[in-house]
Write a structure and sequence with these properties.
This protein has helices at 2-21, 46-49, 55-64, 71-77, 84-93, 128-134, 156-175, 189-195, 223-230, 285-302, 349-354, 378-388; strands spanning 24-27, 30-33, 110-115, 138-139, 153-154, 179-180, 186-188, 217-219, 234-237, 243-252, 270-280, 307-311, 323-331, 336-345, 356-359, 365-367, 369-377, 396-397, 411-412. The chain is elongated. The protein is 29% helix and 22% strand. Helix 4 runs antiparallel to helix 5 and helix 6 (128-134) crosses helix 12.
């Protein structure tokens, strides 16, 4: 049985890889299908990175951004052909440049805007965990044999609310010109690394699959990675940009947290998310970045949420990001703001590593800019919505915009669901022990 499972998994991996990388490449108005999986050699901006006159500016950027990367080693290896592998390794660690305005923030984000009003209660609002548990709409305890710690099961109306949020978000985004794409959750680890996530053994945030399989695969942390991988080795015509894609996927995060503010389902190991991904011309990326923020603001405002928009400092930027905005929703039960979503302008950081280009009107070939934004991350949206829309009798009012997607249901009450049995672990007898009857 084990042999058969491994055989089928290998076949699945090959089929999936073929699907991801067999993509129409748009050049000169023609569709050319790439038939071979090819991980390109990164095209780093060596004119900038290997110029000693830029050393201090790059070093200052590294120091402000978690001090990952060593520009001196890059310069040391830059003219030594025998050190080419080390040279490329060091280049890969250098973070993207940072927007000049953001460099002035030090370690503190800047509040850009507050939207909506805090809801006022004539009773003490409950936290999501207590509220949802009392209504029998969630289970987070004793899931060891199923999914381990930091996991959850949504039940009844809350599971329907999850689906309603997904459908509502997708419909909104498609009206903004986004194209829906279904993506795999298992992708090559190298694609994840080139998108900018940490995959090394010391600080990995990624779940890697067993190395006994054909290639090095991992579980995707966000649909952004699969979408970027889908576009790898692609050249677009300028009139096809901006390319706007949206995907719904499960997201797998190996990260944990001991922070009290991130308790419950605020930070979990797997969750559902609707992700926006855009490729644009470099001259358009600032506008597209603002467009993503406007879309997120529209989505959350339409659901009656109070939130604030933060321009994040260098210490909160991942390696790919040039600039990042966070949307922090007010969670009245917790009495604090929690991150609902973010959007990032990654400029050409990812496109240089994945060979995603476009042909300009003049016929020149340039790297696109890539941008991404969370449209709906289910766990945190549920926390914010349920705490905001709870009633005095500890039920949950369904937001007006979601009622049609909930089959007209306007109130989430206690679910008619039987208590679920807690799992018990039985000690296994060793082969040399005999069970006594």
């Amino acid at each position: 049985m084990k042999f058969k499972l491994e055989k089928y998994f290998k076949q699945f991996c090959r089929l999936r890889s073929s699907w991801i990388h067999t993509l129409p490449v748009e050049t000169s108005g023609k569709n050319i299908v790439s038939e071979k999986l090819c991980l390109p050699e990164p095209e780093y901006d060596t004119d900038f990175l290997c110029n000693p006159r830029n050393r201090d500016a790059i070093l200052n950027n590294i120091r402000r951004r978690k001090e990952i990367g060593d520009i001196d080693r890059v310069l040391e290896f830059s003219d030594k052909s025998e050190k080419r592998e080390l040279f490329l390794q060091e280049l890969s660690k250098i973070p993207n440049c940072t927007h000049p305005a953001v460099l002035e923030y030090r370690d503190v984000p800047k509040l850009l805007k507050q939207c909506g009003e805090k809801v006022k209660f004539d009773f003490e609002p409950k936290e999501f965990a207590e509220l949802a548990t009392d209504l029998k709409t969630i289970r987070t305890q004793a899931l060891g044999p199923i999914a381990g710690q930091r996991s959850y099961i949504l039940l009844g109306d809350l599971a329907e609310l999850e689906e309603a949020l997904i459908q509502y978000t997708i419909r909104k985004l498609m009206k903004h010109g986004f194209k829906l794409v279904s993506v795999p959750d298992i992708i090559q680890s190298s694609v994840i690394e080139r998108c900018g996530l940490i995959v090394n053994d010391d600080r990995t945030l990624v779940y890697k699959l067993d190395s006994c399989y054909d290639d090095d695969y991992s579980l995707s942390g966000t649909a952004e990675m699969s979408l970027a991988g889908k576009l790898m080795n692609t050249t677009f015509s300028y009139d096809k940009l901006p390319l706007k894609l949206v995907a719904v996927s499960r997201c797998y995060r190996a990260e944990g947290s001991s922070s009290l503010d991130e308790r419950g389902i605020y930070r979990v190991h797997q969750f559902t998310k609707v992700e926006m991904f855009v490729c644009s011309e470099p001259c358009q990326s600032e506008k597209v970045f603002q467009d993503l923020q406007d879309i997120q603001e529209e989505l959350f405002s339409s659901l009656g949420l109070h939130f604030q928009i933060m321009d994040m400092p260098p210490t909160d930027l991942g390696s790919p990001a040039y600039r990042k905005y966070d949307m922090e929703g007010w969670m009245p039960g917790r009495k604090l703001y929690g991150e609902l979503s973010s959007c990032s302008n990654c400029t050409d950081y990812q496109s240089r590593r994945l060979n995603i280009k476009y042909r300009t009107k003049e016929g020149n070939i340039m790297h696109v800019h890539t941008l991404n934004g969370t449209a709906c991350a289910i766990p945190r949206m549920l926390i914010t919505l349920c705490e905001t829309y709870q009633t005095k009798h500890h039920r949950i009012t369904v937001p007006e915009k979601l009622v049609p997607l909930m089959k007209g249901k306007t109130l989430i009450k206690k679910q008619p669901i039987a208590d679920m049995r807690l799992y018990k672990y039985k000690q296994k007898l060793s082969p040399n022990k005999t069970k006594i009857s």
